[in-house]
């Protein structure tokens, strides 16, 4: 690997805890394995799962780096074999299973997507985790179609801002919940018909009124707990609920009857443990159907702030405060 140093700066979780447990350390530059490439990182996205990993609640899956970071953008500088050889020298953004908070990161070659024209490297680094997650849950699993009514909880999260834009771009009517009036206005500027401040409004009643009693075709939920029975009350006949996180807990009580009477589907998924082949099919769909929307400017990553890599603790403090709208990104 010409011009690649043997060591690099990476951000280590020294022990589970507050943001100060994130420390810059020297690590060996990783070597790409079969089917992988080495990326010289320009920027790395920060996601809620990184926060959970830092807190000791989301351990990396077997074989993944212990360094946090699920998405990067940068230049491919080496490849283990012919799978990624053609990528050497190109700027890509990549979905990775860990290791993003570092100067170099390995990625599966099929999970590298070209940086969309017109985007900075920081913006490109904000794409993979949220766009892969939204595509597979809203369009594959949730089967959202044009003309349907869709709601995402947490509308100003990285996931929420992506889900709103894609739902609207594909012809759905979008709704959201968020924790302040200002965040709700932002969701509406992104294309939501209406966004509801969940601290002031009962979203079940609000959705009933907004949809004249018909309900929603699809909900993307990252809240869980007691939101489950309330979500079911919002669904129209044949409605679907896709669960992607459980911020209010894993357990709740619910009445199963509406699932039968209204022929509802309750499902969910996680992205990180899936195989490269499964993630590759999402990458191919994004390249074909979503990258053109980004390049035309119809859809764009919503950026909150960038931090230098060695201020990852500051980036996590910012996420912990919960005031952000869109993505926080580390730059190298
Ligand atoms: N399953 C998967 O494969 C997968 C992949 C990636 C991410 N995720 C999950 O998706 C979620 C979003 O990730 P992110 O990185 O975009 O995080 P983020 O920007 O930190 O967003 C977290 C969001 O949760 C919202 N929230 C918390 N309690 C809420 C409630 N009671 N009602 C409505 N919204 C509520 C917050 O809204 P307010 O700030 O307005 O309160 C905030 O927008 C995280 O929970 C993450 O773990 C899942």
Shape: globular
Which bin fits the share of residues in helices? 25-40%
Query: What is the ordering of alpha helices and beta strands?
Result: EEEHEHEEEHHEHEHEHEHEHEHEHE
Total helical elements: 11
Name the poorly predicted regions.
none
Radius of gyration: 20 Å
Give the terminus-to-terminus CA distance: 20 Å
Gist?
With 332 residues, this protein is an alpha/beta fold. The chain is 31% helix and 28% strand. It has eleven helices and 15 strands.
Key attributes of the depicted protein:
332 residues, alpha/beta, six-stranded parallel beta sheet, 15 strands, 28% strand, globular, binds NADP nicotinamide-adenine-dinucleotide phosphate
What would your notes on this structure say?
There is one protein chain. The protein has 332 residues and is α/β, with parallel strands linked by helices. Helices cover 31% and strands 28% of the residues. It has helices at residues 48-54, 82-85, 121-125, 128-141, 158-169, 181-190, 203-210, 227-234, 257-261, 276-295, 312-321, and strands at residues 7-13, 22-28, 36-46, 71-79, 91-95, 104-108, 112-114, 149-153, 173-178, 194-197, 216-221, 235-243, 265-268, 303-308, 327-331. Helix 6 (181-190) links the parallel strand 9 and strand 10. Helix 4 packs across helix 5. The structure holds NADP nicotinamide-adenine-dinucleotide phosphate. Residues 47-49, 129, 133, 153-154, 156-160, 177-179, 183, 198, 222-223, 244-245, 247, 269-271, 319, 322 line the site of NADP nicotinamide-adenine-dinucleotide phosphate.
């Amino acid at each position: 690997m010409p011009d690649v140093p043997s060591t690099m700066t990476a951000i280590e979780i020294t022990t589970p805890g507050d943001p100060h447990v994130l420390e810059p350390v020297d690590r060996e530059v990783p070597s790409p394995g079969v089917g992988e490439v080495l990326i010289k990182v320009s920027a790395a996205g920060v996601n809620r799962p990184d926060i959970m990993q830092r807190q000791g609640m989301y351990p990396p899956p077997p074989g993944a780096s212990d360094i946090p970071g699920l998405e990067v953008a940068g230049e491919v500088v080496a490849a283990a074999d012919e799978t990624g050889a053609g990528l050497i020298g190109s700027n890509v953004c990549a979905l990775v299973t860990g290791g993003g908070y570092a100067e170099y990161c390995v990625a599966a070659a099929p999970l590298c997507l070209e940086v969309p024209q017109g985007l900075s490297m920081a913006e490109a680094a904000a794409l993979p985790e949220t766009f892969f997650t939204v595509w597979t849950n809203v369009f594959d699993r949730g089967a959202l179609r044009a003309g349907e009514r869709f709601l995402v909880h947490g509308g100003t999260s990285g996931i929420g801002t992506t889900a709103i834009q894609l739902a609207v771009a594909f012809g759905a009517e979008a709704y959201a919940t968020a924790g302040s009036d200002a965040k709700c206005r932002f969701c509406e500027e992104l294309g939501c018909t209406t966004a509801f401040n969940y601290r002031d409004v009962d979203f079940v009643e609000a959705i009933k009124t907004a949809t004249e009693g018909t309900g929603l075709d699809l909900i993307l939920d990252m809240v869980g707990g007691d939101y489950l029975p309330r979500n079911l009350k919002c669904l129209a006949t044949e409605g679907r609920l896709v669960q992607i996180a459980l911020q209010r807990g894993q357990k709740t009580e619910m009445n199963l009857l509406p699932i039968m009477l209204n022929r509802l589907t309750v499902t969910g998924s996680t992205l990180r443990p899936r195989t490269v082949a499964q993630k590759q099919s999402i990458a191919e769909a994004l390249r074909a159907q979503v990258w053109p929307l980004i390049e035309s400017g119809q859809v764009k990553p919503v950026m909150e702030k960038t931090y230098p890599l060695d201020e990852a603790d500051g980036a996590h403090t910012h996420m912990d405060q919960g005031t952000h709208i869109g993505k926080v990104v580390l730059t190298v």
